[in-house]
Amino acid sequence: MDKDDFLLLKIFFPNIQLSEEEQERFKALWSIKTFKQYDLITEAGSIERNFYIVLSGVQAIYVLNEKGEKVVLGFSYTGSPSGVFDSFVRGEPSKIFLEALKPSKLLSISKSDYLDLFQNHPSFFEWGHHFFQEVLFGRLSREVELLTLTAEQRYISFMQRCPDELKVIPQKYLASYLNMKPETFSRLRASVTL
Amino acid sequence: MAKLILTSENQIHRLNTVFNTVENLRGLPLDQLTKRINPNAWSVLEVIIHLNIAYGHYHQKFDEILPNLPNIDNEQTKFKCRTWQKFVIEGQRPKNNVRKWKMKTLKRFEPIIDMKKVNELKVNEVFDKFFELYGHLKNSILTSRTKDVSKTKLPSAIGPVVNFYLPESFEFLLCHLERHMVQISEILDELEK
Q: What's the domain range around B149?
């Protein structure tokens, strides 16, 4: 792991105070995994074994509907956490896929090492509390948007907050995430000025 | 007839589900794995041996075909199964955990094992072989995601009367697996009575 990667890791855990020795041990728990475009990082039906932090690339989490179409639940991108959290926490097979939409480099920690962090450093509990609180708030806010906003409002809201690297992934993923047809997404992209 | 659209993601999901089921079977007592519910029926272990035999034909074909298919730059699109192939596939697919009709197994696919000589070592060998073979199927599905699968057909193990494009052959094998998972569940239910 180079200096920049470690910096990103430290930013991800802002309030964790570790001695130099502890920092080295902490660093050693993480490994870098690379994925090609369209690689399945986590497959539905398998158990998520890792917690990830994205160093580069964009990934989508999705489920398949009855027609076998991908229904996108969310994205991860540079600096964000990634993985299939419910499967990771419960240790049960996932119903969700995690796929690299762009070539991706992820920092990865195994479940046992992740749990050891909490065991050995109680300050991680505080981090965990804030982290899962943010995840919950994010999901609630998305649910409200999906249930209350029009397609155009959802498009505008999303485009205003989403990072640039997400704007270049195939439109069908963005359309699915916003619960609209790719044709609608395309029409809005052409007609709405942000 | 409704279209049958095949996607590698759906196939991977279902294959992983079968893996989880078979992994759980591995932990069953020897007696449960080897007992027949009647003299003409297969035991759980014999079903797994049959599945191992059934993959043999495809193992070689996939190794021959996949490296020679052209790569595609785009994401793999959905594959529409052809009518006759769909009919053959649907004949295998269980509906609501029920096998629609029972079929006579071709002689060459019948499991031959002396149950008196089966021990835990042998059982482990059979399960290891299963995961090796169907792990190969999984890798083949994953590899096919970046290949143009509309270029080459392969004959099915049934004979030249049915040929498959790769996604059709994957689907056939999956439905065959799912069919036998239902059979295993029926055997275990009977043994519990």
A: 5-21+30-192
